[in-house]
Structures are given as C-alpha cells and as structure tokens.
User: Fold these one by one.
Assistant:
Number 1:
Amino acid sequence: MTMDQKVSILVVEDEEKIRTALTDFLEFKGFKVTEAADGLQAERAVAENQFDLILLDLMLPKISGEQLCAKWRRDPPKGGQTPIIMLTAKGQEKEKISGLNLGADDYITKPFSLEELLARINAVLRRTDPARAVGQTFKFADLDIDIAALKIKRSEKEIEITKREAAIIQYFAANPNRVISREELYKEVWNETMTELGTRTVDMHIAKLRNKIEHDVTNPKIIKTVRGAGYKYESNG
C-alpha cells in the first residue's frame, strides 16, 4: 500500500448500532471501512479483499471471533498476517486471553471510547507496518535514512546498509521512546518466533548496525540497550 492510499479496516460486529458507530467514526477519521455482521460475512470479506487491520468482536453468530482469529493465523489472508484487534465485553477475561494466545495483536473492552480505539488502531498499525508510519525516507537521530536506496547519510558521509538493517531502523523509527524486546524485534523484522538462536541473531545485527550509525559503539546513544528488557530508540536524542 502506498502512503497516499487509505488504510482499509474490516469491522466485524453483530450489534448494528455499535457497527454503524464504528464505521461512521473511522470513515470520518479517513479510513476505508468494510462491515461484517457475522463470522460468515467476515470470512467471505477476508477471502475476497485485502485489509490493513481487522476489528473483531469475539461473540459473533455463525462463526465466533476466536474461530476466525485461529483460522486467519493458521492460514493468513491476502497480503500476509493482517493485524487483529479484539473487541471484548466485560467478563470475557478467559476469551480475551484465548484471543491473544491465538495471535490477536491487541484487545479493547466494551464499552470503550472511540478516541481510545483510534489510539489502539494507530499503535497496532505502527507496530505492524512501520513503512506506513515513517515512510521510505526519514530522519533517525542525526541520520538521513533512505530505505529504498539502502543508504544512510550523516552530513556528507554516505553509509550503505542491508535490507535487514533498514527494516530494523524503520521499526525503531516507527516506535520511538518505547522499549522493544528482542522477541518483538525478531517477530516483526524476521517474521519468526523467537528462539535461542534468534536472540543471538538480533544482538549480532544490532551490534553491526551500531558500528555503522553510532558515534561511540561503547556508549550507544541512538539505539540504547535497556538491561533485561531489550532496546530503545530515543527520538529526542
């Protein structure tokens, strides 16, 4: 999806008033919205269209939200693993945990404010699609990043980076001032589940990247280590 295209969201909610309210609000905020009133409609919509995000109610007629989430994580829709935000009611703690275990990216409990929902949507989109959040060219500390060209510029000095290093930078740039665990970075950049080998892979790539972008690799200021937690990019320097 190009930067000027609207983000496409599928709203899966069987209560008409809630579904209409969500659709009206999201369209007002500039999203392209498709509605589904039950699990079967949602299944068909995902089979026929590519969405950037799915808002999925847990309690649905015909096919439950849990069943849909499990199916889409087992057999990803067009365009890859579409992020899912679960809509849950109070008292659905067990179902909420089950949904997250099945691969939902976030959840929000009814009743919720529309502004909170918007914040959750934007946060999930930043995490799952950093290219949309920061674009192909952007500032990263005192560096000018060109993702497409795989180049970094500091003053007049030009540095080449690998595709993996570009993806790491893009992910940190899309998630500034937030601690990112090795597990999260490996999942989002490598698209794999963390293993012991994965931990060493992440650390090795961070070390190589620091050699290219840090002024002093013994005291990194751009990508900082947060002991016992992961790494953090502080956009304010």
Number 2:
Amino acid sequence: MTHGALIETDEIVVQAVDDLILCEPLFAVVIKNTGVPKLRLRSDGFQTLLQAIVSQQVSVAAANAIWSRLELEKLLDPDKILKTNEVHLKAVGLSRQKIRYAKALAAANLDYTALREKGDDEVIKILTEVPGIGVWTAEIYAMFSLKRADVFAAGDLALKESARLLFSLDKRPNEGELRVLSKKWSPWRSVAALLLWDYYTYTKIGKA
C-alpha cells in the first residue's frame, strides 16, 4: 500500500488550507489570527525516534541536555546503543526505562527507507510495535518526518484544547471524539493539526 499526498512545499499547505476552510469555515478564524501555518519538517530515521524517546516526560531543557551528552559520546546510531552498557547510558542521563526503549528501538532494525513508501496506518502499526513508541509519537513521525498530509495526532493535549476553544465545545474532547471530528478534514488532517496548534499558541499568548 502506498501513501497519499505529502506536505513538501508551502504551496501545498496553502492549497490544503483553502480546502479545509471550505469544509470548516471556522478555520478562517485561525488564518485571520495566525496566518498560514509553517511547514514543520524533520529528518526521518533512527535519530529522530531516539530523540522522541529521550524527550518523553522530561522538560525541553533536560531533554536537550541529555541529547547533547549523547552527541558528545557519539551514541546516536543503533549499533552504538546496543553495544553500550546500561551504566554508561545511565551516566549520560537516560533512565532505566528509556535505556530499555532505546535498546529496543536499536534492536528493531527498522527499514526507515521502506517506511517512506508504506501507508499511514502501516507506518503507525510498525512503529508502535517498538516498545517506547506510542501512537502519538508514531503519528508525529508520520506527519513531520514522512511529510504525510492526512495524519492527525488526536491524543495531543494542545489539539484537544484548541478544538474546544475554536468550536466552542462544552468540554475538551477526548481522543476518540477528536478523531471522529477530524475525519471530515481528510485528506488534509495534518494541516488541520497545524492550524489547531497555531490557534492553541495564539489563544495562550492572547491570555498571557
């Protein structure tokens, strides 16, 4: 199964926004206040997923510090992670759980090039089979590293809160409710997510 459209240029984002406003006029409110969302592309591969594991449940500053030490120790490829003992990895700043996750990712021997050609659901299924890679991480990887146009990280707290605000909902939708709501934004759900993230930032700055 091959994937659908890719978000590779600003022109594609503009096209997606135009289509989204037709099916959901309230997105025009977002654009009025935040402008067209910017591309948020990242590289794909082992290091991106390793960085996601490092960043789990710690502050941005702490994650950056640990990553800097991993870079200094040249512990950024699967072979090095597998060969490095737990004591050394703990000294770099990884918890016991994250060491287990990092080694599981390294041992998974994922074919990152092949992932580029697989369908969105298959990508998420393959990634979430690796301990430490949850649905949110897999969806973010598909959106930003594989440039997929129709993926929506419905478990994201900021997206839930942004949807509550934009659509004047009585309460913050749960993941299932937001996933259902997002279906009508297909085939541009990734761009809808960008709009909602921008709106979340705008509303929080506005209240600051």
